[in-house]
Amino acid sequence: MGYGYLFIAIISEVIATNLLKATDGFSKLLPSVECLVAYLVCFYSLSKAIKYMPLNVAYALWGAIGIILITIFSVVYWKEQINTPTIIGIGFIIIGTILVNTFGTGH
User: Fold this and answer.
1) Mean of the per-residue pLDDT values for the chain?
2) CB-based burial label for 76 (10 Å; 0-12, 13-18, 19+)
3) How confident is the model over 69-101, as pLDDT tens digits?
4) Distance of CA 22 to the CA centre of its chain
5) Over 1-65, what HEC string results?
6) pTM for the whole thing?
7) At what angle are helices 55-76 and 29-49 packed, to 10 degrees?
8) Can you give the pLDDT at residue 107?
């Protein structure tokens, strides 16, 4: 159950963050409202997820998967550039998330 809520939190966070860029500094009404709604869904779902799983595990997964997906979207959809240090940093995030989930005290 916790992982289902976490999945919803991650997807809605990725949607909200992409909409955040589309708001153009909250100067466009529709993307701004959609962004805020998506963030509400995100944080509500994350709050439900941590009722069923340790906070450190949920947050590590939420953050890492969100960063990876946002980076992919920023390159593919927004046509932003990515460099080697960014890729290395994302690799460290993935390694850290694996360590938290494998050896963390929450399991």
Assistant:
1) 94
2) exposed
3) 999 999 999 999 999 999 999 999 999 999 988
4) 17
5) CHHHHHHHHHHHHHHHHHHHHHCCCCCCHHHHHHHHHHHHHHHHHHHHHCCCCCHHHHHHHHHHH
6) 0.89
7) 150
8) 53
Report residue 61 as tokens. Answer: 């997964």
Q: How many residues does the chain have?
A: 107
User: What six digits make up the tokens of 82?
Assistant: 């990515």
What's CA 89's distance to the chain center, in Å? 16
Q: Cα(90)–Cα(64) distance, rounded to whole angstroms?
A: 8
Among 53, 69, 94, 60, which Cα is nearest to 11's?
Answer: 69
Residues 6+ apart with CB under 8 A from 32: 23, 26
32 with 26: CB under 8 angstroms?
Answer: yes
Cα–Cα dist 85/100, whole Å: 22
Quickly tell me which residue has 């993935």 as its tokens.
94
